[in-house]
Amino acid sequence: MTMAYQQKLAEKLTILNDRGVGVLLRMNYIKKTCSDSKLRPQFLMEKTMEASVKYINKKFPNIDFRGNSQQHLTSIQRQKSEVMMAMASYYDSFLDVMEFRDHVYELLNTIDACQCFFNIAVNFDFTKNYLELIVTYTSVIIMLSRIDDKKVLVGMYNCAHEMSNGSSDPAYPRLAQMLMEYEQPMKKLTEEFGPHTKAVTEALLSLQMLYPRRNLPAEQWRSAQLLSLLSAPAAMLDPTPCDTTACEYLSVEVMERWILFGFLLCHSSLNSNQSSQELWKMALRSGLYLTVVRDETINIHKVTEDYFDSLKGYSKRVADIKECREHAIANCGVMHRERRSFLRHALKELVKILEDEPGLLGPKALFVFMALSFSRDEVLWLVRHSENIPKTKTPEDYVDSQMAELLFYMERLRTLMTKYDRVVQRYHILYLAKFDTLLLNDTIQNMYVCPEEESILMTSFVSTLSELTVNQVKNGEEFDLRAIRLDWLRLQAYTSVSKAPLMLKDYPDLAKIMNMTQFHTKMVDNIQEMLHETSDLSILCFYPRVFEKMFSLSSEEVSMQRYLMSFPLACSRFSQCAHPLCPEEKRCLRLCVTFLEEIARQTSSIILDICAEQSNLNDQLLPKHCGQTISAARNKKQKKQTPKKEVQKAKPGTESQRKDRAIVTKSVSFHPCVLTQTVISLLSIHLCILIIYPTYLNLSTYHLDRRAVSWIGRTGTTQEISRPSDLLAGVRAYTASLHTLSRYLSLDVTRLVKNVLLQQTQPLDSYGGQTITTLYTNWYLESLLRQASSALIIHCPTMHCFVNQTSENEQSFKAEEYSDIVEMQALAELIGPYGLKFLSENLMWHITSQVGELKKLVIENMDVLVQMRANFDKPEAMVNLQKRLPAGDNVLKRMTIIGVILSFRAMAQDTLEDHCPYLMGPIESLRDLVSPDTDIKVTLSVFELASAAGLKCDIDPALVAAIANMRTDNTSIEEEYKLTCLLLVYIAVSLPMLALDPSSCYSREYGGHSNNIHCLATAVNQLSAAMFTVQNKNIEQHLKEFLLVASSTLLQLGQNVENRVDSKNRDSIYLLLHMIVEASPFLSQDMLESCFPYVLLRNAYREVYKAVIVTLG
Predict the structure, then answer these.
(1) CA distance 774 to 1091
(2) Backbone phi and psi for residue 803, each to the nearest 5 degrees, phi listed first
(3) Cα–Cα distance, 435 to 446 (Å, whole number)
(4) 297 with 384: CB under 8 angstroms?
(5) Which of 17, 375, 909, 1113 has the lowest CB atom count within 10 Å?
């Protein structure tokens, strides 16, 4: 017994198991590194090292450094320090294997010497650690044998070491011998474990009651109502009764590894013990592959069969293996498929109940961990076998399109345990203090033998547990009961050795109570570790292809789409598989972002489809669609027969009518509740140092941007585009739908819509694509204004819009449907101030290009214009000069184009007045305070503010800026001033030419001329004001001069008998002069009367407004 205390078996088992996992991961990392051409050590790939590598492989372990062999190692000799440094980590890792092997040998021999007793139901932790150490050690040796370059790595390091230090590394002979021994790992391992057969077999046979009970088909689970809290409603609040608590959530995969590896190493018991043989065969029938580490698996049937074939007297076992393999291929797939189906429904029921009554997490915590453990086993079994699907008639059994649901409910159980951990703590603290402590104390009192060391440990259990109170939970104290669990493991070790004064197997009640107490202590301070133990799926990061396939299959299944978030949540656990001994091990973390992006894409698509459907329904309610209904009602009232060919359109609301509930309409399939579980509102997903917020991935702005642009529906051939009011109605319908969806999903609709609409006010969006602003700007410039410049479309002041000119060529669109007040207001709301600014800049560019051409015409005819300016009051001279002045119609045409553009801009700006109603008063007052004596910079600043608010200003600041930017260094202000004055003269003397154009007739219906020359009024006033402002000249004075020249030339129209024009056209041109004065803030009617008889204007108005007399023959 003294030896048991001194040997510290419990401590050694704990330390060696953790160390073994680290060494195993190092071996796996070295294997992966050496087999990957991108990660492979550089010296193994250099051509200069090829001879050395081949020589070391051939001569290992006895590498001769003298004689003729030196020529093979010259490349190592040249870079010995670099080689030694590069190979040091690999060499040290192999030394760790050797050191680990020595400690395992020593501990196993000590355990045999102590004749320890093993029983998973009694000394659970001691037995589990013992079997786990055996499997870990076996896995390390298997991985060591799979490293093809191990001899080269060790040999190159030793060569470099001897060349640098003059002698080999002291550990090299033993290390080289170990590598040679494990060339055939199974043969050497079975030799090593021969002496330990008795202890291993005893530990494994303790599973013969547990493993068959856990490895049942789904039918028996279903008949037993496994994991169901509703099977016994009266006992729902009772704690789960169990004598082997820890065994209930022990992984079946772990037990199978214990059994199959254990009986492979200690195979002699298979021929001598029928129970061993039955347990072994049952495990063989459960699957084809076992996990060695990460994604490294072993085909246990093949390995065992190959090894038993080399042994005498094992022909029956070989036949058993073949029979079990055939059974596994035929039945395993469907059995595990049925288990997953059962677990999906069982976990769903469990989650629903616990969500409704989280207080049940206390008494039924064991059910949660059992459910997680069972589910984890099934997921990992499918992952292992999906990568290695056997030849079977039913390969679909190895594919699961409903995996998302199982993963989702596993995550929900984890979330519930984490969220309500205080509930669980409170329950189990009461359980420990009020039940376990009393029961344990009574059991200790009834023991007839209790040595001092054991008595001290058990007394400490009672005293520590009795001090626990609920107030500690209320005060938020942190609990740490690991000492109790480690002491219980020590006590198991002390009482499991042969000839111990206190034999644990003689006191099964003590073992049962302590195993249950240990579980309760974990519920107080170690819930997260328990969750990791029972539901860790971090191994999935080493199966990216399988995991992505599962996600792809689940995303294709409509009923599974609501559970897709479980995949990125599973990725958040990948960081838990890291180990301090292998920090450089790479894990596939890109999967989380990939899954989230795909979920966001699918969710965006569904949400936008819902919005599109709602937008279509809203579109049916627009006034433009009611014409046919009104016409039909009118015809019915007047008893007119409707044409038979007309198909009656469905009225709004028919989409909601169903005669059969089985018929699913779009409005039903797109109900927001369908999306409720598609996107779970989670705070964040943690991946090591990376934190991903899925809320912001839910709805991609790119898709909404593209959808918004597609609404415009412009085509290159017909130049058709959606009306701004229709587009605005669609945007509002989408926004309303998104706000409705935000009640069900965590969508930040305000941020999303603002972001999208703000991008649409810019020339390009964040993805470099065209926006609504760009498309509408281009359309209005290229389609509407271009045709208005050709007089195919008329600016109509009376209706404040543009209208189509009646002509033989039918226009592809009606201009009034795109330019009336409603449409311009909708356009302003869509593209916003930034969009209007962009539109204004484009309009100004076209204006400045026309101004540039006008200046060229003025320069070409400067001499004639100078003379005309001096002699405008001399009719005879003006007649001669006009004959020498060409291109007058060109000047008027370009000025008309400028006027059309400015008129359109004014219509767009007028819509801004309602955007800031509370600021309009102060802005108007500020504008009215501006006088001619105010500094020009202050004036322009105030006018810029007023213009941005939609107010009309005497001087257009945008036009002033555009004209100012036209000036070059080659021209002086005086030259520009002279050109401007002559341009006004050019325009004034060219006005009579308009009377020769038949289309210059004034239309009282439109309030303007048929060829848009009424826009000259706007062009003359605004352009002259802008140009003289830039040149710092008096605007009023020069406009008076323009008025005098224009009046003089127009008065000559009626006196020139030779070129007599139609009186109606002449009157229309007289009205143009009146329009110029009316539109100008610098000219007045008094000024006009002083140079142009008012009687002519009065007669002109009477003539153009004269009613047409219709006579009947």
Answers:
(1) 47
(2) -130, 160
(3) 17
(4) yes
(5) 1113
DSSP code of 1031?
A: T
How far apart are the C-alpha atoms of 744 and 679, rounded to whole Å?
10
Contacts made by residues 470-476, CB under 8 angstroms, sequence distance 24+: 470/426, 470/429, 470/430, 472/429, 473/422, 473/425, 473/426, 473/429
Q: Give the pLDDT confidence of 563-606 residue by residue, as tens digits.
A: 888 998 888 888 888 888 888 887 666 888 888 888 878 877 77
Q: Is the dihedral of CA 922, 924, 929, 932 positive or negative?
A: positive
φ/ψ of 1048, rounded to 5, equals -60, -45
CA-wise closest residue to 925 among 956, 946, 940? 946
Residues 6+ apart with CB under 8 A from 133: 13, 16, 17, 20, 104, 107
* CA-wise closest residue to 964 among 953, 954, 976, 975: 976
pLDDT for 909? 87
Calculate the CA 865 to chain-centre distance.
68
Q: What SS3 string covers 376-430?
A: HHHHHHHHHHHCCCCCCCCHHHHCCCCHHHHHHHHHHHHHHHHHCHHHHHHHHHH
**Facing residues of 922 across strands?**
none
Q: Quickly tell me which residue has 């208005």 as its tokens.
A: 788
Q: What residue type is assigned to position 444 of the chain?
A: I
- Computed on alpha carbons and rounded to an integer, the radius of gyration of the chain in Å comes to 46
- DSSP conformation letters of 222-266: HHTTTT-SSSSGGGTTSPPP-S-HHHHTS-HHHHHHHHHHHHHHT
- The CA-to-CA distance between both ends of the chain, in Å, stands at 139
**And the tokens for 414?**
């984890």
How far, in Å, CA of 473 to CA of 524, rounded?
9
CA distance 884 to 887: 10
Which residues are paired to 685 by β-bridges? 692
The three-state secondary structure class of 518 is helix
b/e string for 467-485 if b means 16 or more Cβ within 10 A?
Answer: ebeeebbeeeeeeebeebb
- pTM of this prediction? 0.76
- pLDDT category at 189 given cuts 50, 70, 90 is very high
The answer to whether 1024 and 1038 have CB atoms below 8 angstroms apart is yes
Give the Cβ contact number of residue 767 at 10 Å: 10
Using H for helix, E for strand and C for coil, what is the string for 51-112? HHHHHHHHHCCCCCCCHHHHHHCHHHHHCHHHHHHHHHHHHHHHHHHHHHHHHHHHHHHHHH
pLDDT exceeds 80 at position 960: yes
Within 10 Å of residue 397's Cβ, how many Cβ atoms?
Answer: 19
**What is the token pair recorded at 413?**
């159980």
Element (H, E) at 292: strand 289-293
Per the CB < 8 A criterion, the answer to whether 320 and 281 are in contact is yes
Q: Judging by DSSP bridges, how do beta strands 1008-1009 and 685-687 pair with one another?
A: unpaired
Output the pLDDT for position 710: 67
Q: Tell me which residue of 340, 264, 270, 273 sits closest to 299, measured CA to CA.
A: 264
d(CA 945, CA 1091): 37
Q: Are 48 and 128 in contact (CB under 8 A)?
A: no
Query: Which has the closest alpha carbon to 182: 228, 143, 127?
Result: 143
Mean pLDDT of the chain: 86
Among 2, 79, 68, which residue's Cα sits nearest to residue 43? Answer: 79
Name the DSSP letter for residue 517: H
Q: How far apart are CA 741 and CA 984, in angstroms?
A: 61
In whole angstroms, what is the distance from residue 650 CA to residue 620 CA?
10
Q: What does the DSSP 8-state code read for residue 1059?
A: T
Q: How many CB atoms lie within 10 A of CB 293?
A: 20
Q: What is the DSSP string of 905-962?
A: HHHHHHGGGGTSHHHHHHHHHHHHT--TTS-HHHHHHHHHHHHHTT---SS-HHHHHH
